[in-house]
Each structure stands twice: as structure tokens, then as C-alpha cells.
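User: Earlier you gave me the apo prediction for this protein. Now I'd like the version with guanosine-5'-triphosphate bound, so I can compare the two side by side. Same sequence as before, with the ligand SMILES added.
Assistant: Got it. Here's the input I'm using:
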Amino acid sequence: MGQLIAKLMSIFGNQEHMVIIVGLDNEGKTTILYRFLTNEVVHMCPTIGSNVEEIILPKTCFFMWDIVRPEALSFIWNTYYSNTEFIILVTDSMDRDWLLTTREELYKMLAHEALRDASVLIFANKQDVKDSMKMVEISHFLTLSTIKDHSWHIQGCCALTREGLPAGLQWMESQAAAN
Ligand SMILES: Nc1nc2c(ncn2[C@@H]2O[C@H](COP(=O)(O)OP(=O)(O)OP(=O)(O)O)[C@@H](O)[C@H]2O)c(=O)[nH]1
Ligand SMILES: [Mg+2]
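And here is the structure of the complex with guanosine-5'-triphosphate:
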């Protein structure tokens, strides 16, 4: 798997940036991935394994892996990490109970040697749902202001309407251009 990813990276060249989309179950990871590609909502089943898509923009290209939770696939996790430049962490803004687990997973990833230089985009998804937590509350809960050794950005979004997704992608483009 590692060799395959390295080969793909060499084919696509330096403009290609490797991205992993992570988060707990049912947070909207796969919906977001396909909303980057199409104007239609693709109805999803829970992901088994991974989905991968190439998002081609005028000046850059993101090679995005939507992967299941770390513990389920821990044996190949290092393979993904070793080439990753961006982590997209998706949270369900309604899911207060799971935010603690999300926080644990986030800091475990950030402590990983292979992700030392990765930038983090947090999508606070499902902002359309009544009483969803807003970005300030989620930022506070995830203690994002304590992250000093990675670039990070939090963006509220609704994958169903695409609201917030272009802004998140723009942040990634600006990071890619700066690196
Ligand atoms: N209301 C609302 N529902 C959403 C939004 N984004 C995704 N969903 C719904 O949430 C459910 C889960 O979406 P998925 O994209 O399959 O979530 P996932 O994180 O890929 O789930 P797993 O593959 O099981 O880990 C689906 O029913 C989506 O239609 C959103 O912004 N608002
Ligand atoms: Mg999925």
C-alpha cells in the first residue's frame, strides 16, 4: 500500500497534495468528499475501507482519502500518515457526546511523528441541524488554541448544501501555496 501511494504521488508530481479525511462514524466524511466533486448529494452507506478521489483545482490538486476510524484499520494507518500533508477532521456539530473522543483522536494524530508537518482543517459539519454547536464552542471544546505546532483552521459547514466547503478548500489551497 505504501509503495502504491508513493508511486501515485510520483506520477501526479509535486502539485498533488495528499489529504486524509477522518472523524468518527456518521459525521459526514464521505458526503463532504463527494460534495467536493459534484453538485448533487450522493446518498451514502457507512464506508467500509476507504474512498479515494482526486480534487483538481486550477493551481493545485488534492488526492483525498476518506478512511474509517483508526482503530478499525490501525495496521495500515502509518501508510496513510507517512504521505499526508493535510488532515480534514469532520465533526458532527450535534454530537456533543462524541466530541471528547474526537478530541482524543485529534491529539493522538497530531502527536504522530509522520504527521509532524501536516495542516489540519476541522469541518464542523451539520450546521443546518437545529441547536448544533457553533464553531466557537467546538473550538473551545477541542482546545484548538493550544495547537501551536500545526497550522489549523476550523470551518462550519453543511455538506448537504455545500455551505462552507469552498471556504475550507480555499484555506487548504492557500496553505499548499505557502508550503
Ligand atoms: N443534516 C445533515 N446531514 C448530513 C450532513 N452531512 C452528512 N449528513 C448525513 O449524515 C449521514 C452520514 O453521512 P456520511 O457521509 O455517510 O458519514 P461518514 O462520516 O462518511 O460515515 P461512515 O462512513 O460511517 O464513517 C448521511 O445520512 C448524510 O446524508 C449535513 O451537513 N447535514
Ligand atoms: Mg463514509
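For your comparison, keep in mind: The pocket of magnesium ion (ligand 2) is lined by residues 29-30, 44, 46-47, 66 (CB under 6 Å).
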